Amino acid sequence: FYADTTPLNDEGVQRVQRRRLPALRGYEPARDRDARAIYLLGFGYASLGRTDVAIDLMEESTRADPTNAKYLIGLGNQYRAKGRTGQATGVYRRALVLSPGDAEAAVELAALLRAQGEDRQAEEVLRQALRAAPQEIDLLVTLGTVLLDSGRAAEALPLLSRGVAKEPRNKTLRLLSGRALRALGRHTEAVAH
């Protein structure tokens, strides 16, 4: 199994996107049907903007290995790209059942829920994931942002402070911590962030 991974310029991407068949040498569908190979082929198509082909392949990879959370997350990302939010929500939830602390699945699901006005559900998804992975920076940032956006700076600050303690040079965490401090009237402390 061999895939040409040479970086493409815009013209090269357009040329590959017009192809109907995989740009693969040595790939035989009847022989090479393991879940990882199928997923990687789908990921390659996704990288080229061929979302429909990517979805077909990623769906096949999740049928071949339904216990792989990363395959489900990749499929969810492709569903989102096509505006198929209901399906994306379902596979992100399945991924979180398999891997409760997976930051990507939780953050993506929370974004979908927030877009639907379900901020409380988004918050709960993030809190559950954070319980499983308490030091995961993406979860701290996203939950802190959700809380700040809902006017709950006092709840956001401890989460963001944990993140800053772990990654003191993370500019996003420092900015969000400063925002929380300002919202709490602690302007002097906020300047340091």
Can you tag this structure with a few keywords?
193 residues, mainly alpha, two-stranded antiparallel ribbon, 11 helices, 70% helix, elongated, disordered N terminus
Write up what this structure looks like.
- The chain is mainly α.
- Helices cover 70% and strands 2% of the residues.
- It contains eleven helices and two strands.
- It has helices spanning 10-17, 35-47, 51-64, 69-81, 85-98, 103-115, 119-132, 137-149, 153-166, 171-183, 187-192; strands at 2-3, 24-25.
- The chain has a two-stranded antiparallel ribbon with strand order 1-2.
- α4 packs antiparallel against α5, α6 (103-115) runs antiparallel to α7 and α9 packs antiparallel against α10.
Helix content: 55-70%
**Arithmetic mean pLDDT:** 87
- Morphology call: elongated
Sheet with the most strands, sense and barrel status: 2 strands, antiparallel
Summary of the model, kept short:
70% of the residues lie in helices and 2% in strands.
What order do the helices and strands come in, and which of them pair?
Layout: E1 2-3, H1 10-17, E2 24-25, H2 35-47, H3 51-64, H4 69-81, H5 85-98, H6 103-115, H7 119-132, H8 137-149, H9 153-166, H10 171-183, H11 187-192
Antiparallel strand pairs: 1-2
